[in-house]
Amino acid sequence: MNKTIFSILILVISSCNVFAQIEATTTDGKKVLLFDDGFWQYKQVTKSIVMDEVECFELVSTKMDEMTGESLTGSKEPIVVSDDGNNSGFVINILKRSKSIIFSFTVNGVGGCIEADSKINIVFRDYTRLDLINDGEFNCDSKFSLYFGGIAGKDKQLEFFRKKEVKTMRIWTSESFVEKEFSPEQSKQLMNTVNCLIRN
């Protein structure tokens, strides 16, 4: 009986040894798996992880504010949501300051001022809805702001932008509103930018 158990144990250990592998990194940074029999293969890396790293590099950048010495991380390029050369629509810049994510909108093509309690209505591609109030001050410069996270709170609302793609936004002024539909590329750019800023 002991011989049988010992034989099975030896067999199990041997088979584990045959399939043993070592992970290594090549001089050009690629991950490979080395096997005991001398063979090797590239380690499978999921495409989404690689794409996330590339997208973050392409989507966000960090700059130093020369006046304050504070570093600011934000979207490299604004998201322009307009179907008529930005005569009507909005431009979105997204920043990270301290632990807060700030959406800064410039609203074009509608009269009136942005009130302190002006609203934004957002519909996501899964048709969930989110209604928020301007976090900025009253202005007639067409500036609308949203703050999330840190001392601003609204962490649950920020999760919508992290996990869902925006379909449509409507921003209200004192006289009217501007409503625009996002292209699939703009939706992904917004969601990925938010995720990159949170990770940064």
Task: Give the SSE map.
Blueprint lengths: L1 H17 L2 E5 L5 E5 L4 E3 L4 H13 E5 L6 E5 L3 E3 L7 E9 L2 E9 L10 E6 L4 E5 L9 E6 L6 H9 L2 E7 L4 E5 L2 H16 L1
Antiparallel strand pairs: 1-2, 2-3, 4-5, 5-7, 6-7, 7-8, 8-11, 9-10, 9-12, 12-13
| Biggest β-sheet strands, sense, barrel | 6 strands, antiparallel
Q: Report the end-to-end length measured between terminal Cα atoms.
A: 60 Å
SS element count, helices = 4
Judged by helices, strands and strand pairing, the structural class is alpha+beta
Radius of gyration: 25 Å
Overall helicity: 25-40%
Work out the number of β strands.
Answer: 13
How many domains? 2
Using the alpha-carbon principal axes, give the shape.
Answer: elongated
SSE pattern: HEEEHEEEEEEEEHEEH
| Percent strand | 35-45%
Structure description:
With 200 residues, the protein is α+β, with helices and mostly antiparallel strands. The protein has 2 domains: 2-42, no CATH class; 47-199. The chain has 4 helices and 13 strands. Strands 4, 5, 6, 7, 8 and 11 form a 6-stranded antiparallel β-sheet that branches. A 4-stranded antiparallel β-sheet has the order 10-9-12-13. Helix 2 crosses helix 4 (184-199). It starts with a helix and ends with a helix.
